[in-house]
Amino acid sequence: MNHEKLYIDKELSWLSFNERVLQEAADKTNPLLERMRFLGIYSNNLEEFYKVIFSDLKRRILISEERCIPESLYHLLKKIKERVFKADQEFHALCNDLLLEMARNKIFLINERQLSINQQTWLRHYFKYTLRQHITPILITQDTNLIKFLKDDYTYLSVEIIRGAEINYALLEIPSDKVPRFVNLPPAPPHRRKPIILLDNILRYCLEDIFCGVFDYDFLRAYSMKMTRDAEYDFSIEMESSLLELMSSSLKQRLTAKPVRFVYQYDMPDAMVEILRNKLNISKYDSILPGGRYHNFKDFMSFPNLGKVNLSNKPLVQLRHLRFDSFLNGFDAIRTCDILLYYPYHTFEHVLELLHQASFDPAVLDIKINIYRVAKESRIINTMIHAAYNGKKVTVVVELQARFDEEANIHWAKCLTEAGVHVLFSAPGLKIHAKLFLISRCEGGEINRYAHIGTGNFNEKTAQLYTDYSLLTADARITNEVREVFNFIANPYRSVSFKYLIVSPQNSRYMLYQLIDNEITYAKQGIPANIILKLNNLVDKGLVDRLYMASSCGVQVNLIIRGICTLVPNLRGVSDNICAISIVDRYLEHDRVYVFDHGMERKVFLSSADWMTRNIDDRIEVGVSILDPVLQQQIIDIMQILINDTLKARVIDQALSNGYVQRGNRRKVRSQVEIYKYIKSLETLEKSS
């Protein structure tokens, strides 16, 4: 069997995942405004695809260019462009359908040609007093360096300044970081409508206000465009520099990195397209796409709530864990037994409250925590600063290399250092992706420790949108090893071993191979053996091959993969016993769970690590063995609900067809709704016991 049949290209698998997001925008059972927001998510994902995955492919092609570019890379590049173009056509058709549906619900996204007299007057005033200060045209001349001036995440209007036979060009930045992209207009009586106009169209309407008195012209025309840069950076400067200095320098590289995608309004004149292509040095390997009138659809993720209540998702009240509310203090609750939280079904407030309490509790001596992505106004950062003010020994490991959060994390590192917090950074090229904190507390003359091991970031905002687990424990078997992880972070070259934690890059590959091999051994003995994995991405070839081996030996493997999956299920003689699904729904499925079960023994792990080579070999990641049988069962129950989803689960197959799981005679199961009910029922049982 050849390579192509055994492994799906990760780039195509990623695009397939984003097409599942587009399916949610097309799903008429979703509320209208949520469907619009899924368009925004699709657009945001595609932007990241070009910044990271497509850029990596382009670099591989350029590196091979001097020798001989493999035919497979050309073929892959062609398939990517075809797939993106097809999805882009579906995207724009769907967008038009949803705009019509919004109009039926009296929500009107209008353009500059549809304004009433009153709205025109209002917009002139709005432009003069709110927008004008943020608008500075970039004139395109022979010497203009657009790569230097243009920003990556912005939409621009490319303006033709026409006077007779002479045409000049200028660019206007849409300042959506300074003012809202969506502007509510006064209604046009007697209609009870809710008109909205995009910032882009306000600038189109006010073009003369911008250029009048500066240029002589007969008329002006504006067309939208945007470009996407390669998001990679390197550390090729003096290595005696600190990581903080390295990262600051590397971020400046990103600001002027080469574009890899150029998107322009489909009716933009050919001469203008050619000028922009040349100015941006767009090569034959880059993606060039004609598009609609609007770009940066990711702003639609924040489309305003308007109209009837049923146009958005009904909010689910986040649940409090009864165990915390049964004790006056969080430490007493955790000391009684391990506590498992599952967001966004549980509230993240429990973690915030525990850290807040630790910041001023006289018995607390020491707090260690690592941060990767935190909220914009992070309560956790403020709590750590207050803990330091209160005399606690506070250590915060700040990951400066968290992609797209580097600048924010540099800011937080400086704030923490100024407050007297001991700040640690990872070594260049070795990201710390673990989700840990450790609190040391003096109790009865002894030091007891409380640990958090999670699958998601310490981020109040994403904890309301992403599914993630937090394990809170005082079990010394776990807390002692978490302490060793923090020692390893401080000195990553010292020898260390773990029994209850799976820690990358120390023992992850060895332990995961061993866990799979154990199931193979039992299957060969005729004992039913099962593996259930929930991951964001399954890419590492060594682990994929091990799963193939397990399947061929009779191990039943169930995969729940949100994003990239290079493994091909249901190949005869290779993966007959592997079933793979992907669930895309209201919440982003983000937790990583590993279950190994052969009846005689069951092992359940929660982890920060996906099964990608970088997570296994090149990052500091932590997985934890769930030792409490009750919590083990809860996790397995939740996994089973996900496996039984008959509404939002898609089959992962070699064709990347994204077909929905066939329900047959089974009842309708929307796993995220059922999980909420399940967790709520656990609290009811706890109350009654």
Total beta strands? 26
The DSSP helix count reads 21
**What is the CATH superfamily classification of the largest domain?**
Endonuclease Chain A
Overall mean pLDDT? 90
Question: Class by helix and strand content?
Answer: alpha/beta
- Uncertain parts: 233-241, 243-256
Helical residue percent?
25-40%
Summarize the structure.
The chain has four domains: 19-105, Polyphosphate kinase N-terminal domain (Methane Monooxygenase Hydroxylase, Chain G, domain 1), CATH 1.20.58.310; 110-234 and 248-303, polyphosphate kinase like, CATH 3.30.1840; 322-490, Endonuclease Chain A (Endonuclease, Chain A, 2-Layer Sandwich); 501-686, Endonuclease Chain A (Endonuclease, Chain A). It is built from 21 helices and 26 strands.
